[in-house]
Design brief:
alpha+beta, 2,3-Dihydroxybiphenyl 1,2-Dioxygenase, domain 1, 5-stranded mixed beta sheet, two-stranded antiparallel ribbon, 18 helices, binds 2-oxoadipic acid, binds nickel (II) ion, 2-oxoadipate dioxygenase/decarboxylase, HGLS, dioxygenase activity, iron, dioxygenase
Amino acid sequence: MTSNKQGSNPLPWDADQLRSVFVHALSDMYREEVPLYGKLVDIVRTVDNSVLEKKGQSVDDLPIRHQVERHGAIRLGTTHEMRQISRLFAIMGMHPVGYYDLEMVGFPLHGTAFRPTSEESLRQNPFRVFTTVLRPDLIVSSTVRETAIEILSRRELFSPRLCELMDQAEQDAGTLTQKDADELIVEALKIFKWHSRSTVPLETYLSLKQEHPMVADIVCFPSAHINHLTPRTLDIDAVQLEMIRQGLPAKEVIEGPPPGRKCEILLRQTSFKALEEQVVFSGSGVSGTHTARFGEVEQRGAAVTRKGRDLYDRLLAAAVANEDNWDPSLAHAFQEYPDGWTELRKQGLVYFRYRVSQDVASRRKPLPTDMEALLQAGIVECEPITYEDFLPFSAAGIFASNLAGTNGTADRKLQATGCSSRAELVGVLGREILSEIDVYEALQKASVDEVANALGLEAITLA
Ligand code: OOG
Ligand code: NI
């Protein structure tokens, strides 16, 4: 790891660098464990290059984050593990954003996304991890519930050395040396590593799997193996076609908004299905198979406002009502979603980052105090803010398509039916879960304030 930026940060390492080094190491590890992931990353690179070539551009024209951008997912077993992982991620500059209740698709899990939230951290490396934890109270069979709790109570995902380093980082990060930071990465990787040796006998595995395949996946292994790592692409439809052409077991449907939009919003995702992997079970040493790990790819668009999200959810619900005919139904429903940046902005559907266009800043006085007028006069320019989060309905589709024995069209609902357990998860984490809308709102507001400041205006009104 290289040394930190001078001056602005008192630590010998910085959380953003630590996160970048970590995701790089994680990606190398996963590429080795799941060669198809490497193949998918290669497909993404080829597709992106050809998209850029058509525009007369190269990867160097993209923001630096694009080439390193990944998200991953882990499923944890206990509240203790969840609390510990939130400490580890905080050291890497990743904080809980958004609450995801997977009970809505019949999974005994809930979770959050750990991710950077500041403009600068996102610019450097926006790595995010969709992190869920088992809710034993939702396990129907009391025998399975007790077995799961008992097995998990004996598991320790965090090595003693990692715990020491985390304590040290939290008390006084300034005392961590370069060697300590490197060691922290090595120890942290162990949590995410795959083990083909189960900690339980085959019969136990089968009984947990019968309750729910996720329960077996979470409980029966010594680590919280990362179950996918997702690169971002510029053209997910092309990647999907290429996956099929190269014989990868691609999921049938791309989740999220329909194809063909000029202005991409939120997130579109597809995956290749989980691999069947050899596992040796404890006791008898018999081997069997387990399916859990897969590959996924995503295309990210603009972050939408609360109003924009409500519209998205309403149109998606309309499409779901006609699910037998998915593609045309989705396309039809989304005709109602505006597809021009100006319109999206004027209707308050998308968040934007504003900045002063250098050369015209001082020319016109008095300046208008209305953002649309400033934009029109060319004094200010803007770009949509990238959506950094997940979509519960899409996540449910990704989850479902990777479960053995389902065809990927599990019964998904848009709203949770049970009572929300957000407060419970906040208690587990011991810290607030930020609302993603608040984070985007704050980013937009900071940029508006900066513009006002630079132009010497007291306030600027948005459309
Ligand atoms: C997580 C699935 C959700 C996404 O991209 O929506 C997800 C899991 O299978 O554990 O990663
Ligand atoms: Ni994912």
